[in-house]
UniProtKB/TrEMBL annotation:
Transmembrane feature ranges: 21-38, 50-74, 95-118, 138-158, 170-190, 196-213, 234-257, 277-302, 314-336, 356-376
Protein name in the entry: Multidrug export protein MepA
Annotated keywords: Antibiotic resistance, Cell membrane, Membrane, Transmembrane, Transmembrane helix, Transport
Annotated organism of origin: Paenibacillus amylolyticus
InterPro entries with a match to the protein in the record: MATE_fam (IPR002528), MATE_MepA-like (IPR045070), MATE_MepA_subfamily (IPR051327), MdtK-like (IPR048279)
Length: 452
Protein backbone atom coordinates (compact mmCIF):
# COMPACT_ATOMS: atom_id res chain seq x y z
CA UNK A 1 0.00 0.00 0.00
CA UNK A 2 1.40 3.37 -1.08
CA UNK A 3 0.38 6.50 0.86
CA UNK A 4 3.10 8.85 -0.41
CA UNK A 5 0.94 10.61 -2.97
CA UNK A 6 -2.09 12.90 -3.00
CA UNK A 7 -5.14 12.46 -5.25
CA UNK A 8 -6.55 15.63 -6.93
CA UNK A 9 -9.88 15.03 -5.15
CA UNK A 10 -8.13 15.64 -1.85
CA UNK A 11 -7.12 19.12 -2.98
CA UNK A 12 -10.56 20.39 -4.10
CA UNK A 13 -13.91 21.06 -2.47
CA UNK A 14 -16.75 18.71 -3.44
CA UNK A 15 -18.40 21.42 -5.54
CA UNK A 16 -15.16 22.20 -7.37
CA UNK A 17 -14.53 18.51 -8.04
CA UNK A 18 -18.11 17.90 -9.19
CA UNK A 19 -17.97 20.78 -11.67
CA UNK A 20 -14.51 19.66 -12.84
CA UNK A 21 -15.96 16.24 -13.72
CA UNK A 22 -19.45 17.38 -14.71
CA UNK A 23 -18.61 19.83 -17.50
CA UNK A 24 -16.39 17.55 -19.63
CA UNK A 25 -18.57 14.51 -18.89
CA UNK A 26 -21.82 16.10 -20.04
CA UNK A 27 -20.20 17.96 -22.94
CA UNK A 28 -18.60 14.76 -24.19
CA UNK A 29 -21.85 12.81 -23.90
CA UNK A 30 -23.89 15.54 -25.59
CA UNK A 31 -21.45 15.71 -28.50
CA UNK A 32 -21.79 11.94 -28.92
CA UNK A 33 -25.58 12.27 -28.67
CA UNK A 34 -25.76 14.99 -31.30
CA UNK A 35 -23.56 12.84 -33.48
CA UNK A 36 -26.18 10.08 -33.34
CA UNK A 37 -28.87 12.61 -34.25
CA UNK A 38 -26.87 13.86 -37.23
CA UNK A 39 -26.38 10.23 -38.24
CA UNK A 40 -30.14 9.78 -38.11
CA UNK A 41 -30.69 12.92 -40.18
CA UNK A 42 -28.24 11.77 -42.86
CA UNK A 43 -29.70 8.26 -42.99
CA UNK A 44 -33.28 9.56 -42.99
CA UNK A 45 -32.63 12.03 -45.84
CA UNK A 46 -30.42 9.73 -47.92
CA UNK A 47 -31.97 6.29 -47.39
CA UNK A 48 -35.47 6.98 -46.03
CA UNK A 49 -37.58 5.83 -43.09
CA UNK A 50 -37.26 2.09 -43.84
CA UNK A 51 -33.46 2.19 -43.53
CA UNK A 52 -33.85 4.28 -40.39
CA UNK A 53 -36.18 1.65 -38.96
CA UNK A 54 -33.68 -1.08 -39.92
CA UNK A 55 -30.92 0.61 -37.92
CA UNK A 56 -33.33 1.01 -35.01
CA UNK A 57 -34.10 -2.72 -35.10
CA UNK A 58 -30.40 -3.72 -35.18
CA UNK A 59 -29.33 -1.12 -32.60
CA UNK A 60 -29.78 -3.53 -29.64
CA UNK A 61 -26.62 -5.33 -30.81
CA UNK A 62 -24.65 -2.10 -30.49
CA UNK A 63 -26.34 -1.53 -27.15
CA UNK A 64 -25.41 -5.02 -25.94
CA UNK A 65 -21.72 -4.42 -26.62
CA UNK A 66 -21.84 -1.06 -24.89
CA UNK A 67 -23.56 -2.84 -22.00
CA UNK A 68 -20.71 -5.33 -21.76
CA UNK A 69 -18.13 -2.56 -21.70
CA UNK A 70 -20.07 -0.68 -19.01
CA UNK A 71 -20.56 -3.83 -16.94
CA UNK A 72 -16.86 -4.54 -16.60
CA UNK A 73 -15.73 -0.93 -17.10
CA UNK A 74 -17.94 0.59 -14.41
CA UNK A 75 -17.48 -2.34 -12.05
CA UNK A 76 -13.72 -2.24 -12.44
CA UNK A 77 -13.45 1.55 -12.38
CA UNK A 78 -15.59 1.81 -9.25
CA UNK A 79 -13.31 -0.64 -7.43
CA UNK A 80 -10.30 1.14 -8.94
CA UNK A 81 -11.40 4.50 -7.45
CA UNK A 82 -12.28 2.89 -4.13
CA UNK A 83 -8.80 1.38 -3.82
CA UNK A 84 -7.26 4.69 -4.90
CA UNK A 85 -9.17 6.27 -2.02
CA UNK A 86 -7.65 3.59 0.24
CA UNK A 87 -4.21 4.41 -1.23
CA UNK A 88 -3.77 0.82 -2.49
CA UNK A 89 -2.20 1.47 -5.93
CA UNK A 90 -1.12 -2.11 -6.65
CA UNK A 91 -4.65 -3.46 -6.20
CA UNK A 92 -6.04 -0.63 -8.32
CA UNK A 93 -3.64 -1.47 -11.19
CA UNK A 94 -4.50 -5.16 -11.01
CA UNK A 95 -8.20 -4.32 -11.24
CA UNK A 96 -7.55 -2.17 -14.33
CA UNK A 97 -5.50 -4.88 -16.05
CA UNK A 98 -8.04 -7.58 -15.32
CA UNK A 99 -11.01 -5.48 -16.43
CA UNK A 100 -9.60 -4.60 -19.86
CA UNK A 101 -8.58 -8.23 -20.48
CA UNK A 102 -12.04 -9.52 -19.59
CA UNK A 103 -13.93 -7.05 -21.75
CA UNK A 104 -11.79 -7.84 -24.81
CA UNK A 105 -12.23 -11.61 -24.49
CA UNK A 106 -15.95 -11.43 -23.66
CA UNK A 107 -16.96 -9.22 -26.58
CA UNK A 108 -14.91 -11.23 -29.09
CA UNK A 109 -16.59 -14.47 -28.01
CA UNK A 110 -20.11 -12.99 -27.99
CA UNK A 111 -19.70 -11.27 -31.36
CA UNK A 112 -18.35 -14.30 -33.20
CA UNK A 113 -20.91 -16.63 -31.63
CA UNK A 114 -23.88 -14.40 -32.51
CA UNK A 115 -22.56 -13.97 -36.07
CA UNK A 116 -23.06 -17.70 -36.67
CA UNK A 117 -26.89 -17.29 -36.50
CA UNK A 118 -27.10 -13.66 -37.63
CA UNK A 119 -30.16 -13.90 -39.91
CA UNK A 120 -32.37 -15.51 -37.28
CA UNK A 121 -31.21 -12.87 -34.80
CA UNK A 122 -32.28 -10.01 -37.09
CA UNK A 123 -35.82 -11.37 -37.37
CA UNK A 124 -35.96 -12.03 -33.62
CA UNK A 125 -35.21 -8.34 -33.03
CA UNK A 126 -38.37 -7.34 -34.91
CA UNK A 127 -37.33 -7.09 -38.58
CA UNK A 128 -39.76 -7.75 -41.42
CA UNK A 129 -39.19 -8.21 -45.17
CA UNK A 130 -38.80 -4.44 -45.67
CA UNK A 131 -36.35 -3.74 -42.88
CA UNK A 132 -34.31 -6.98 -42.93
CA UNK A 133 -31.63 -5.93 -45.49
CA UNK A 134 -30.83 -2.72 -43.64
CA UNK A 135 -30.88 -4.28 -40.19
CA UNK A 136 -28.67 -7.18 -41.34
CA UNK A 137 -26.08 -4.86 -42.94
CA UNK A 138 -25.76 -2.85 -39.75
CA UNK A 139 -25.75 -5.78 -37.34
CA UNK A 140 -23.19 -7.92 -39.17
CA UNK A 141 -20.51 -5.20 -39.01
CA UNK A 142 -21.23 -4.63 -35.34
CA UNK A 143 -20.92 -8.32 -34.46
CA UNK A 144 -17.55 -8.68 -36.19
CA UNK A 145 -15.86 -5.47 -35.08
CA UNK A 146 -17.78 -4.36 -32.00
CA UNK A 147 -14.84 -5.20 -29.72
CA UNK A 148 -13.18 -1.96 -30.89
CA UNK A 149 -15.74 0.34 -29.27
CA UNK A 150 -16.13 -1.86 -26.20
CA UNK A 151 -12.43 -1.40 -25.42
CA UNK A 152 -12.68 2.32 -26.20
CA UNK A 153 -15.73 2.75 -23.98
CA UNK A 154 -14.28 0.82 -21.02
CA UNK A 155 -10.94 2.62 -21.25
CA UNK A 156 -12.73 5.98 -21.31
CA UNK A 157 -14.32 5.16 -17.93
CA UNK A 158 -10.95 4.24 -16.40
CA UNK A 159 -9.26 7.37 -17.76
CA UNK A 160 -12.00 9.53 -16.21
CA UNK A 161 -11.66 7.68 -12.89
CA UNK A 162 -7.90 8.21 -13.03
CA UNK A 163 -8.49 11.94 -12.66
CA UNK A 164 -8.49 12.85 -16.34
CA UNK A 165 -12.09 13.65 -17.43
CA UNK A 166 -10.83 16.04 -20.12
CA UNK A 167 -9.08 13.31 -22.12
CA UNK A 168 -12.25 11.21 -21.97
CA UNK A 169 -14.14 14.23 -23.33
CA UNK A 170 -11.59 14.75 -26.13
CA UNK A 171 -11.98 11.10 -27.11
CA UNK A 172 -15.76 11.46 -27.23
CA UNK A 173 -15.48 14.59 -29.37
CA UNK A 174 -13.05 12.78 -31.68
CA UNK A 175 -15.51 9.91 -32.03
CA UNK A 176 -18.42 12.24 -32.78
CA UNK A 177 -16.66 14.48 -35.31
CA UNK A 178 -14.99 11.55 -37.08
CA UNK A 179 -18.29 9.65 -37.22
CA UNK A 180 -20.11 12.55 -38.86
CA UNK A 181 -17.38 13.08 -41.48
CA UNK A 182 -16.86 9.37 -42.22
CA UNK A 183 -20.59 8.63 -42.42
CA UNK A 184 -21.10 11.53 -44.81
CA UNK A 185 -18.43 10.02 -47.06
CA UNK A 186 -19.92 6.54 -46.70
CA UNK A 187 -23.47 7.66 -47.51
CA UNK A 188 -23.09 10.50 -50.02
CA UNK A 189 -19.73 9.87 -51.71
CA UNK A 190 -19.25 6.09 -51.67
CA UNK A 191 -22.98 5.33 -51.31
CA UNK A 192 -22.37 2.26 -49.14
CA UNK A 193 -25.69 2.59 -47.35
CA UNK A 194 -26.30 1.25 -43.85
CA UNK A 195 -23.20 -0.96 -44.04
CA UNK A 196 -21.11 2.19 -44.43
CA UNK A 197 -22.78 3.78 -41.39
CA UNK A 198 -21.78 0.78 -39.26
CA UNK A 199 -18.20 0.86 -40.57
CA UNK A 200 -18.03 4.58 -39.82
CA UNK A 201 -18.92 3.89 -36.20
CA UNK A 202 -16.13 1.32 -35.84
CA UNK A 203 -13.47 3.52 -37.49
CA UNK A 204 -14.49 6.50 -35.33
CA UNK A 205 -14.24 4.40 -32.16
CA UNK A 206 -10.72 3.35 -33.15
CA UNK A 207 -9.67 6.99 -33.57
CA UNK A 208 -11.16 7.81 -30.15
CA UNK A 209 -9.19 4.91 -28.68
CA UNK A 210 -5.97 6.46 -29.99
CA UNK A 211 -6.84 9.70 -28.15
CA UNK A 212 -7.40 7.79 -24.90
CA UNK A 213 -4.02 6.11 -25.22
CA UNK A 214 -2.34 9.53 -24.82
CA UNK A 215 -3.30 9.35 -21.12
CA UNK A 216 -0.65 6.66 -20.63
CA UNK A 217 2.07 9.19 -21.44
CA UNK A 218 1.00 11.69 -18.77
CA UNK A 219 2.89 12.02 -15.47
CA UNK A 220 -0.38 11.77 -13.55
CA UNK A 221 -1.24 8.39 -15.09
CA UNK A 222 -1.74 5.46 -12.71
CA UNK A 223 -3.25 3.13 -15.32
CA UNK A 224 -0.53 0.60 -16.02
CA UNK A 225 -0.91 -3.01 -17.04
CA UNK A 226 0.45 -5.39 -14.46
CA UNK A 227 0.42 -9.12 -13.85
CA UNK A 228 -2.59 -10.48 -12.06
CA UNK A 229 -4.02 -13.78 -10.94
CA UNK A 230 -7.56 -14.85 -11.74
CA UNK A 231 -8.91 -14.02 -8.32
CA UNK A 232 -12.52 -15.17 -8.60
CA UNK A 233 -13.58 -13.21 -5.52
CA UNK A 234 -12.34 -9.98 -7.09
CA UNK A 235 -13.84 -10.93 -10.45
CA UNK A 236 -17.19 -11.51 -8.75
CA UNK A 237 -16.94 -8.10 -7.07
CA UNK A 238 -16.27 -6.39 -10.43
CA UNK A 239 -19.19 -8.24 -12.02
CA UNK A 240 -21.60 -7.52 -9.16
CA UNK A 241 -20.77 -3.82 -8.84
CA UNK A 242 -20.81 -3.30 -12.61
CA UNK A 243 -23.97 -5.35 -13.20
CA UNK A 244 -26.35 -2.36 -12.78
CA UNK A 245 -24.49 -0.58 -15.61
CA UNK A 246 -24.85 -3.68 -17.78
CA UNK A 247 -28.55 -3.83 -16.96
CA UNK A 248 -28.95 -0.11 -17.70
CA UNK A 249 -27.53 -0.50 -21.19
CA UNK A 250 -29.13 -3.90 -21.79
CA UNK A 251 -32.37 -2.27 -20.68
CA UNK A 252 -32.03 0.00 -23.71
CA UNK A 253 -32.13 -3.13 -25.87
CA UNK A 254 -35.25 -4.29 -24.01
CA UNK A 255 -36.63 -0.76 -24.42
CA UNK A 256 -35.97 -0.78 -28.17
CA UNK A 257 -37.15 -4.34 -28.85
CA UNK A 258 -40.31 -4.05 -26.75
CA UNK A 259 -41.29 -0.75 -28.39
CA UNK A 260 -40.39 -1.97 -31.90
CA UNK A 261 -42.38 -5.20 -31.53
CA UNK A 262 -45.41 -3.47 -29.96
CA UNK A 263 -45.44 -0.63 -32.48
CA UNK A 264 -44.93 -2.97 -35.44
CA UNK A 265 -47.98 -4.92 -34.28
CA UNK A 266 -50.15 -1.83 -33.74
CA UNK A 267 -48.87 0.63 -36.39
CA UNK A 268 -46.62 -1.33 -38.78
CA UNK A 269 -43.36 0.00 -40.25
CA UNK A 270 -44.57 3.60 -39.86
CA UNK A 271 -44.92 3.05 -36.13
CA UNK A 272 -41.39 1.62 -35.88
CA UNK A 273 -40.03 4.54 -37.91
CA UNK A 274 -41.73 7.08 -35.61
CA UNK A 275 -40.22 5.36 -32.59
CA UNK A 276 -36.76 5.37 -34.21
CA UNK A 277 -36.99 9.17 -34.59
CA UNK A 278 -38.07 9.46 -30.95
CA UNK A 279 -35.27 7.13 -29.90
CA UNK A 280 -32.61 9.29 -31.56
CA UNK A 281 -33.79 12.30 -29.54
CA UNK A 282 -34.22 10.22 -26.39
CA UNK A 283 -30.69 8.87 -26.87
CA UNK A 284 -29.25 12.37 -26.47
CA UNK A 285 -31.15 12.89 -23.22
CA UNK A 286 -30.03 9.52 -21.89
CA UNK A 287 -26.42 10.36 -22.66
CA UNK A 288 -26.78 13.71 -20.85
CA UNK A 289 -28.12 11.95 -17.74
CA UNK A 290 -25.45 9.27 -18.06
CA UNK A 291 -22.81 12.01 -18.27
CA UNK A 292 -24.19 13.59 -15.12
CA UNK A 293 -24.17 10.30 -13.21
CA UNK A 294 -20.71 9.45 -14.59
CA UNK A 295 -19.39 12.75 -13.23
CA UNK A 296 -20.59 11.86 -9.73
CA UNK A 297 -19.35 8.24 -9.76
CA UNK A 298 -15.56 8.82 -9.40
CA UNK A 299 -16.20 11.26 -6.54
CA UNK A 300 -18.58 8.99 -4.65
CA UNK A 301 -16.35 5.92 -5.08
CA UNK A 302 -13.22 7.78 -3.96
CA UNK A 303 -14.87 9.45 -0.96
CA UNK A 304 -16.42 6.12 0.03
CA UNK A 305 -13.04 4.38 -0.13
CA UNK A 306 -11.44 7.22 1.85
CA UNK A 307 -14.30 7.04 4.42
CA UNK A 308 -15.21 10.71 3.85
CA UNK A 309 -18.95 10.27 4.39
CA UNK A 310 -19.93 13.96 4.50
CA UNK A 311 -18.26 14.61 1.15
CA UNK A 312 -19.84 11.49 -0.28
CA UNK A 313 -23.35 12.64 0.69
CA UNK A 314 -22.74 16.17 -0.61
CA UNK A 315 -21.68 14.78 -4.00
CA UNK A 316 -24.94 12.81 -4.21
CA UNK A 317 -27.04 15.86 -3.30
CA UNK A 318 -25.30 18.03 -5.90
CA UNK A 319 -25.86 15.41 -8.59
CA UNK A 320 -29.50 14.87 -7.58
CA UNK A 321 -30.40 18.58 -7.67
CA UNK A 322 -28.61 18.97 -11.02
CA UNK A 323 -30.54 16.00 -12.44
CA UNK A 324 -33.88 17.42 -11.25
CA UNK A 325 -33.25 20.84 -12.78
CA UNK A 326 -32.06 19.31 -16.06
CA UNK A 327 -35.18 17.10 -16.19
CA UNK A 328 -37.51 20.11 -15.97
CA UNK A 329 -35.56 22.04 -18.64
CA UNK A 330 -35.45 19.06 -21.02
CA UNK A 331 -39.19 18.48 -20.63
CA UNK A 332 -39.94 22.09 -21.54
CA UNK A 333 -37.53 22.13 -24.49
CA UNK A 334 -38.90 18.94 -26.05
CA UNK A 335 -42.57 19.89 -25.45
CA UNK A 336 -42.06 23.16 -27.30
CA UNK A 337 -39.68 21.90 -29.98
CA UNK A 338 -41.13 18.45 -30.76
CA UNK A 339 -42.41 19.29 -34.31
CA UNK A 340 -39.09 20.88 -35.24
CA UNK A 341 -37.02 18.02 -33.81
CA UNK A 342 -38.99 15.43 -35.81
CA UNK A 343 -38.85 17.36 -39.09
CA UNK A 344 -35.06 17.54 -39.18
CA UNK A 345 -34.84 13.76 -39.66
CA UNK A 346 -36.47 13.83 -43.08
CA UNK A 347 -39.68 14.36 -45.05
CA UNK A 348 -41.64 11.40 -43.73
CA UNK A 349 -45.29 10.57 -44.21
CA UNK A 350 -47.77 12.43 -42.04
CA UNK A 351 -48.40 9.21 -40.10
CA UNK A 352 -44.74 8.86 -39.09
CA UNK A 353 -44.42 12.56 -38.25
CA UNK A 354 -47.64 12.81 -36.26
CA UNK A 355 -46.92 9.62 -34.28
CA UNK A 356 -43.39 10.80 -33.44
CA UNK A 357 -44.55 14.24 -32.24
CA UNK A 358 -47.41 12.78 -30.22
CA UNK A 359 -45.14 10.14 -28.69
CA UNK A 360 -42.44 12.66 -27.77
CA UNK A 361 -44.85 14.92 -25.94
CA UNK A 362 -46.07 12.06 -23.75
CA UNK A 363 -42.75 10.25 -23.40
CA UNK A 364 -40.72 13.24 -22.22
CA UNK A 365 -42.57 13.47 -18.89
CA UNK A 366 -40.20 10.64 -17.92
CA UNK A 367 -37.35 13.18 -17.78
CA UNK A 368 -38.76 14.67 -14.59
CA UNK A 369 -37.80 11.45 -12.78
CA UNK A 370 -35.23 9.74 -14.98
CA UNK A 371 -32.16 11.81 -14.12
CA UNK A 372 -32.68 11.40 -10.37
CA UNK A 373 -33.11 7.64 -10.86
CA UNK A 374 -29.81 7.58 -12.78
CA UNK A 375 -28.01 9.42 -9.98
CA UNK A 376 -29.40 7.21 -7.22
CA UNK A 377 -28.56 4.03 -9.11
CA UNK A 378 -25.00 5.31 -9.57
CA UNK A 379 -24.80 6.25 -5.90
CA UNK A 380 -25.81 2.79 -4.65
CA UNK A 381 -23.50 1.19 -7.21
CA UNK A 382 -20.57 3.37 -6.15
CA UNK A 383 -20.89 2.47 -2.45
CA UNK A 384 -21.22 -1.25 -3.17
CA UNK A 385 -24.99 -1.55 -2.59
CA UNK A 386 -25.45 -3.52 -5.80
CA UNK A 387 -28.85 -4.93 -4.83
CA UNK A 388 -30.55 -1.54 -4.72
CA UNK A 389 -28.75 -0.36 -7.87
CA UNK A 390 -29.87 -3.53 -9.67
CA UNK A 391 -33.47 -3.03 -8.51
CA UNK A 392 -33.57 0.56 -9.77
CA UNK A 393 -32.19 -0.38 -13.16
CA UNK A 394 -34.14 -3.59 -13.68
CA UNK A 395 -37.41 -2.05 -12.51
CA UNK A 396 -37.27 1.11 -14.63
CA UNK A 397 -36.02 -0.48 -17.86
CA UNK A 398 -37.33 -4.03 -17.70
CA UNK A 399 -39.73 -5.24 -15.01
CA UNK A 400 -42.13 -2.30 -14.65
CA UNK A 401 -41.67 -0.90 -18.16
CA UNK A 402 -42.27 -4.22 -19.94
CA UNK A 403 -45.28 -4.93 -17.72
CA UNK A 404 -46.78 -1.55 -18.60
CA UNK A 405 -46.13 -2.01 -22.33
CA UNK A 406 -47.99 -5.33 -22.12
CA UNK A 407 -50.86 -3.99 -19.98
CA UNK A 408 -51.57 -0.48 -21.31
CA UNK A 409 -51.98 -0.81 -25.14
CA UNK A 410 -55.15 -3.00 -24.96
CA UNK A 411 -56.82 -0.11 -23.08
CA UNK A 412 -55.11 2.98 -24.54
CA UNK A 413 -53.72 1.82 -27.91
CA UNK A 414 -50.52 3.50 -29.06
CA UNK A 415 -50.85 6.03 -26.23
CA UNK A 416 -50.30 3.19 -23.78
CA UNK A 417 -46.92 2.45 -25.37
CA UNK A 418 -45.79 6.06 -25.01
CA UNK A 419 -46.99 6.17 -21.38
CA UNK A 420 -45.05 3.08 -20.26
CA UNK A 421 -41.68 4.77 -19.67
CA UNK A 422 -42.89 7.89 -17.79
CA UNK A 423 -45.01 5.75 -15.47
CA UNK A 424 -42.21 3.26 -14.83
CA UNK A 425 -39.73 6.06 -14.00
CA UNK A 426 -42.23 7.61 -11.56
CA UNK A 427 -42.93 4.30 -9.80
CA UNK A 428 -39.20 3.58 -9.45
CA UNK A 429 -38.55 7.02 -7.94
CA UNK A 430 -41.30 6.36 -5.40
CA UNK A 431 -39.63 3.06 -4.45
CA UNK A 432 -36.24 4.80 -4.07
CA UNK A 433 -37.76 7.47 -1.82
CA UNK A 434 -39.34 4.84 0.44
CA UNK A 435 -36.10 2.83 0.65
CA UNK A 436 -33.91 5.89 1.27
CA UNK A 437 -36.14 7.20 4.05
CA UNK A 438 -36.21 3.81 5.77
CA UNK A 439 -32.43 3.54 5.52
CA UNK A 440 -31.89 7.06 6.88
CA UNK A 441 -34.24 6.34 9.77
CA UNK A 442 -32.39 3.09 10.55
CA UNK A 443 -29.05 4.94 10.54
CA UNK A 444 -30.36 7.62 12.93
CA UNK A 445 -31.76 4.99 15.29
CA UNK A 446 -28.45 3.14 15.19
CA UNK A 447 -26.54 6.31 16.08
CA UNK A 448 -28.93 7.04 18.95
CA UNK A 449 -28.46 3.55 20.37
CA UNK A 450 -24.67 3.96 20.23
CA UNK A 451 -24.81 7.30 22.07
CA UNK A 452 -27.16 5.87 24.70
Amino acid sequence: MNTNWSHPLEQQTVRQAFIRYLVPSILGMLVVGFNFIIDGIMVGHKLGSTALAGIGIASPVYTLFVAMSLWIGMGGATLYSTHMGEKDLLKAKQIFSKSITIILLATLVIGLTAFSFKDALVYALGANAETFPHAADYMNIMLLFGFVFTIENALSIFVRNDGNPNTSMYAQITFAVANIVINYVMLYVLEWGVRGVALGTIISAFLALLVLLTHFFKKTNHLTFTRFKWNWKLLSAIALIGFPSFLAELGMSVFSVSHNVSLERIAGTDGVASFTVLNYIHGVVLLAFLGLASAAQPLISYYHGAKQRDREKLAVRLAGWTAGICGVLLLLIVQIGAPYFVQIFGNFSSTVTDNAIYGLRIFTFAYLFMGINFVMSTYFQSIGNAKMAIWITAAREMIIMVALIALLPPFFGITGIWLAVPLSELLVLVSITIYYRKRSLAERLSQLSIHN
